[in-house]
Amino acid sequence: MIEPLVLIPPMLCDARVYYAQLASLSSDIPVTFAPITGGERIEEMASAILSWLPNKFALAVMGMGGMVAMEVMRRAPGRVTRVAFIATNAQSDTPEVSALREPLIIAAKTGRFDDAIQAEINPAWLAPGPYRADVMSLVTDMARALGPDVYVRQSRAMQRRKDQQDILRRIKQPALVMCGEHDGLNTTRRHEFIAELIPYAQLEIIPDAGHIPTLENPDAVTRALRTWLKQPLVLR
After folding, report:
1. Extents of the domains making up the chain
2. Strand, helix or coil at 203?
């Protein structure tokens, strides 16, 4: 029997970012969505998730959710049976990137949340094509639904996060590293580097997709996840 699958979203996204995967995988796999809307540190988000998850579970995570998952694996590696990292980053904010977050946080706090959303969600990060506008519209709607308070907390957590590359080197579970071939933020080269850090990790580049492959090419992402979920749990 396949263990329960836990999906952790990227920043400013709710369960809709995994809509296609939830619809397909939940037909024969127990699937749980774990929001990351509380706390101003990655560590606090990981603690909240670990407090209610089952004793053993698989993780499929994207963006900021990947950073939370790395902290989960640092704290409770024995509870995670396998992990799939999608469109994420294991490094901490540079001082420049951290500083750029401040005016956006101020905008969100002073009634200009849409300005912050537009700065955070760059259409150039997505794959070119006829569906880019639809993906942008959905991502914007998810961000508005979560609201400025969640945005501020998540931004603070991103600013304060630690470098997590050492955690990746210690992963022994079946690992999948996935990204869109057109990702303009977390590039394929960055994901190649992540896959090189994790022993025995498999790298999957999703065609016709950019920074949000679960929405841009959902069928390809779901197929890759099904293959990964069927991998045997081998102790290395």
Report:
1. 1-236
2. strand
Under DSSP, is residue 36 helix (H, G, I), strand (E, B) or coil? coil
- Alpha helices for 177-217 (secondary structure H): 188-197, 213-216
Assessment of whether the complete model's pTM goes beyond 0.85: yes
Residues 164-185 pLDDT 10s: 999 999 999 999 999 999 999 9
Q: Which CATH number fits domain 1-236: 3.30.70.20, 3.40.440.10, 3.40.50.1240, 3.40.50.1820?
A: 3.40.50.1820
| Helical (H) or strand (E) element with 138 | helix 132-146
**Per-residue b/e over 50-68, b at no fewer than 16 CB within 10 Å?**
eeebeeebbbbbbbbbbbb
Question: Using one digit for the tens of pLDDT, what is the confidence trace for 141-156?
Answer: 999 999 999 999 999 9
